[in-house]
């Protein structure tokens, strides 16, 4: 025994000292043409390793120790790209797609990737690494956006966003650059009326396993963006590994994830990436486990197939689809019924799918053509029944709501680089939509089409001065309307001054338009002469943004923006007693005669300081002060529903290394938001009619209490030779703070009741990559 003891000690020591390695590789291409850049310099820190790209524009670093790295990519005549917060784990290669932009001078800012769209202000990138690391994101990029200044979640249960005081309805979801339907499970989650919305939901159907870097824009959009006034989340897909087959398995209280990626053929660089997810609550529900009377289930499938072709071209086929349900059944013990909902049986179902293709074709050495076609559809239904106390069966149906939404979106964009200082871009968007809601008189169907051509011209007119001017047109038609539709021209302009490599001052302006929600068009008004609001024009918006950015080093930057948004042609209620404006709309059907005679004004100041993850620490501090108001039909100005006054977010984290195999991370996020507003309820009249009745002329005069929520995420990463594992615990609202959501009259309580946001939500997850 004494003889083998030294051998055991030697074996244990070698195991503890074992170092695990993996590979960082990728391609470097011209951002305008997509052509590979040969001889680009690529270095990886904190090592001293460096290389240049080969004739295919590829680079490779093998046998790197697992851990955190930064890539720096430079090429003569192009701006430098810095890829921060890059995590290398055993069992998985890290593959990067770098796009460099020709530039004579570029700010030495802390960027994540050089593939940013041409927007000088109000843009944030959301990486998959941030989505996995930030606290309580549930792997949803929209929830990452709540760390940005001026952004707040409409409620805890869903990812609908209030951006600079705008309704979630003013936000647009895009996939690979084109507009799609609401891409979320459980779109009724947390809403005031428990009805489905067209802008948010409980869980994003597109799994994070497929996401690359997404773009979040909050105002003064460049010329290629249209039919939106509030904000944009453009989700981009990453390609699967084209050299090695890899798998990811994850189990959490959200669900079970299975992902696979790899080459489709050894003879080409074609690749596949596919993910399937099934809700863990669904598995428990199948075993008879109850969650407070609600049975919540969802499952989805996403894929991305990439086929590189000759001369640097690329063809992709992608898709996503999911089904979900939420069934509420009352307690068998009727004595335990406390609230009005306790006596109902509610069945909610949701189906969503999208399939598309894109083709990128370089044209010579200065131009490229990109074409995208996506068809997406959404089908939701919600049926509610009163429960018979004697038989416990369904009695009277008291609700039948739903959405049937189909959308086909097409885009083709031509980009041409005149020289290193000047670029030209022109394109066309075509969108056709059909939208149906439960039958109402005279019709519940809305058909629309939109044609959106655009041109943009960007030029570096001096070494320190860059400008961009553009023009966007929106030609739209609601088929139920007997008028000729609308033709709207929208100028866009931006200018950026860089007095040094470390700072920039920029100004952006945009005139934007957005069609009304289909609920607004099909809403019914009148008692004897019933009509609908199909004759409404799009809402329009002037947006001005002035920004300043200071970069202190390659991982720290300060951004300050001040903005003003003036909306006009806003539909407002013709009944002077109602004070109704669609800027306050979320999910309800207004059923009011509306006219395009309202306005809205939002202005504010935003500040954010960001330190990317270097030296095992990162931090993002952001805050804003803002004011959001609207003017009603008779010209009176009111505070809007989403006039919270301020936002504050602290997102931070620290990593700790334990030997060569383990990595611990502690991450926190603190949200402090000004309370949104609600209308005053007439308690006496509500008790008489047994429904919620708001006081006349009340507008949104009641301000709810400030919202405060701390979140926490703790993870432990363990590396082995051929795989890595991550054990994580997310705690949303770790303090259990009771934040107000809304108020309503509850006929069982016979009183006005305050509904609160979610309390403490723990989510345990285990991730295995190999």
UniProtKB/TrEMBL annotation:
<feature type="signal peptide">
    <location>
        <begin position="1"/>
        <end position="17"/>
    </location>
</feature>
<dbReference type="InterPro" id="IPR008969">
    <property type="entry name" value="CarboxyPept-like_regulatory"/>
</dbReference>
<keyword id="KW-0732">Signal</keyword>
<protein>
    <recommendedName>
        <fullName>TonB-dependent receptor</fullName>
    </recommendedName>
</protein>
<dbReference type="Pfam" id="PF13620">
    <property type="entry name" value="CarboxypepD_reg"/>
</dbReference>
